[in-house]
Amino acid sequence: GRVREAVAGTPIWAALAGVVVIGWVVVALDGGTFFASGNLTNILQRSVALGIVAVGQTVAILAGSLDLSVSYLISLASLDGRESMLVPAIALTLALGAGVGLVNGLIITKLRVNPFIATLGMALVLRGYIENNYDRPTGAVPESWESFGYTRMGPIPVSIFLFAGVALVVGLALRRTRFGYHVYAVGGDEQVSVLSGLRTHRVVIGAHVICSVCAALTGLFLASRLGSGTPRVGTDGGYDLESIAAVVLGGTALAGGRGRVAGTVGAVLVLAVLDNIFNQLELDPFLKQAVRGVVII
Asked: Crossing angle of helices 37-62/159-176, nearest 10°?
């Protein structure tokens, strides 16, 4: 079983290697330098925001659910920038994310609302709140947090370690803990899980809490990059559908029960490399989206 899972997780990494080689050739033919240090920095920097939210989305999808509210939650989380009390502000923002995830999970499990409808409804609630209260960038991010979004160790941005840490912790939790086993079981067959005595509602709720906390963390990271809260940063980035696409591209079954965080990480890197190649070639934005769509299909 483990050998089969390992083999199943290799295609996206093989695809990543293929995309890198093709990108190197195409950019070289265009007169550019693909393996420049600035290019590596750009690719890694692009992968952080999508990567963090996609890791959370992986947990929700593995549990047989999904979350369409993440983009508006990212926007709302970014709006919590303050000049002082950085640690309490971060804690409150993550608590906000956990609260949204808890509500999503309760609506899905206790009210028996389809995850697509439940999280779409939550997205509309968050959208209404944001549009009613914010019409422009607001707040100010402390210099210590803003520097986090731009500090590098050579060509390696420090923020990539945040992405790596989130992926490692969530990946280990899914593969090594009882909760992780239950996520796979519930996503694989909820009825069998109920008959086996699993508390499936708790598993789904927990998966949504993790997903929403990752979305809130993504909002905090984007605030460090932008220097202030931005009411449209999540929706402009399309992180709801982009995160789902990355999860599925990484080999996780949309029906749940099968997949790994490592596959999602590979898919995020594939999308980041593609974006970098498109930008170097100065492709038309519409053509860029079309090519991305073909790659995902």
From this structure: 30
